[in-house]
From TrEMBL:
Residues 23-276 form the EAL domain. This is PAS domain S-box-containing protein/diguanylate cyclase (GGDEF) domain-containing protein.
Amino acid sequence: AKADGKGGYATFTAELNVAAQRRVRLEESLRLTILRDELSLAVQSQFGPAGDIRGAEVLVRWLRGPEGVPVSPAEFIPVAEASGLIKPLTLTVFRQALEIAAQLKAAGLRIPLSINLSSDLFRDSALIDALVDLVADSVVTPDALMLEITESLFIDTHPDLLRNMARLAELGFAFSLDDFGTGYSNLAYLKRLHLSELKIDKSFVDGLPQDEDNRAIVLSIISIARQLRLRVVAEGVETSAQADFLVAHGCELLQGYLLHKPSPAEEWLGQLMDGIEK
Ligand code: C2E
Ligand code: CA
Ligand code: CA
Ligand code: CA
């Protein structure tokens, strides 16, 4: 390797160190944030073709990171996954989501909440037990939730994963396969999982309806979903041309900035409640 020079080995090493240091700082800070119960949730509504609210996804928020400004989950979720902090983080998210679900139930609203679950957690029976207990101890039933799992994990359908998933399905939990098509699509495993829903990743929705490749991918996903009797959700819908294309081709649920930007949980609930009072 080069010893120095612009863009050479030394610079590369220095950049690596900066990145590594940031990760360490994020991890330490995230640990404290979870301990102090300072993570919060944003909620993004999902709509049917007629514009009716059908569900909502909860997204974790870290509003005051080490620099006092928000840190994106795209940055801190991988840190949480690599450090084991993903377990207490997920418990916090579940607890808060169950509180929202309880308020929806009290208001007579049937709006299932989608919760993101990192794939590796499905192999952790103790954590699954803890999540099941949280739900059992709440007024909420499993059908008020939708568990979103990311596709990458299914590279190998680990027996523990299949067992835990089957157990949860038996208890009435439903599953959505998140970011479908971005991982190692082995279609054979789709049958073996207890899925209710496929979620089309934003990267495929981008460029619709012009982009030929994305159009072909989206149409195939909708067709696969139909044949396996799974519901399809499209995420990252930003334009009405995208929405029109998706609805015209049988996508049942739409999620994206065009329809609703994620808003803080209290605000989201407040607006819903205002809506039913009128
Ligand atoms: P995801 O599950 O694919 O979630 C969708 C992401 O796209 C969210 O970003 C959402 O805010 C954003 N989004 C929604 N509609 C639009 C749109 O129309 N345009 C654009 N540009 N973006 C849109 P967010 O909240 O930053 O989350 C990023 C990722 O972090 C999520 O991707 C998910 O994989 C992960 N994540 C978020 N919350 C949790 C959590 O509680 N647990 C776990 N394990 N992962 C989480
Ligand atoms: Ca998701
Ligand atoms: Ca995801
Ligand atoms: Ca996605």
